[in-house]
Amino acid sequence: MIAGLRSHIILHACMTHLATRLFLLWCCWSGPSFLTEIAVAGLNEDASVEQTWARLLAEAKRLQLPTKFLKTLPPDFIHFDFDDLRTYAAEYHPGEHRMVLNRSLSFNAAGRTLRPLGKMTHRELAVLYHELFHAYMDYLEAVEAPSAEAGHRSEPLLHFAREQQACRYAEVEIAPLALRKGETELRYLTQAESWEALNETWAVFIGWAVWNQLEARRKIGKSMVHEREQDNQWIGRFKTAFENGDFRGYYVPEDPDERRLAQKRYLAKPSQLTLKEAMILMKQVLGFQREFIERVQMSFGSSRTSAC
Ligand SMILES: [Zn+2]
């Protein structure tokens, strides 16, 4: 379907089981005064955009959250909007590079600028990272065409994504009934559907990775002494999630008849993220250390090899 048209029909709305409606009190937090000044500086749009992005990166670093992929994005790439979202926690509109977040995620719920990351719950940070990953893929696509014209090879992650799209997401098993996960049906996806299924699956993993990093830290404690124990926690959680088939995205069917049956089709466990995809995302997007990624891989043994 034509890209422009698609954005009208398909509201690229996100978060599956990670989705939580965000219920927050509007009244009970006021930040330090310098942050208020930043919000006021929003009158000067360019300065505000630069400052907001610099602040987001600095806060993510301070909270020891992944920043590798965020550093690639130009400060003005994402247009942040805030709204009183009723159905979804957040939305990302690829063509417009627009992220719509619940108003409660804005500073003082005023709908102007992003709330400090340190004041967000773990669930909210997972939602934000899920959306930031969509923006990152959108950015890679946006720079792909001019770069290809200039004779450059596509960026490695995008190259890998295209490969996986053809190999793993063109033909998928879906779970037609949410409550009967074991029942699956085969579907052959269009280009747009398979790209969306891949993007959602990968974004689910990114949100999951961030949430579990924060949860493991909360459980074990922040000290360096406990770092290895935190890592073990994360790896244990990752294995469980994999076995449960938690890393599954969705797509909105292009066929109107199919869409009448279901607005969204969720992938089934056999079509969830592969270990290989997870490894690539850990390395190239999240910037996890090589030693840690090797430990994750070793914990699965050598039996799991992907067909792609
Ligand atoms: Zn999403």
What does this structure look like?
The structure is a single chain. By secondary structure, this protein is mainly alpha-helical. The chain folds into 2 domains: 1-120, no CATH class; 155-308, no CATH class. 50% of the residues lie in helices and 8% in strands. The protein contains 11 helices and 7 strands. The protein has helices at 3-9, 33-40, 45-62, 68-72, 122-149, 156-168, 191-220, 227-244, 256-261, 275-285, 290-299; strands at 79-83, 90-93, 98-102, 171-174, 185-188, 250-251, 265-266. The strands form 3 sheets. It has a 3-stranded mixed β-sheet with strand order 1-3-2, with helices on one face. α6 packs across α7. It is globular, with a radius of gyration of 20 Å. It starts with a helix and ends in a 9-residue tail after the last helix. Zinc ion binds at residues 14, 130, 134, 200, 203.
Q: What's this, in brief?
A:
The chain has helices at 3-9, 33-40, 45-62, 68-72, 122-149, 156-168, 191-220, 227-244, 256-261, 275-285, 290-299; strands spanning 79-83, 90-93, 98-102, 171-174, 185-188, 250-251, 265-266. It has 308 residues and is mostly helical. A hairpin with a 4-residue loop joins β2 (90-93) and β3 (98-102).
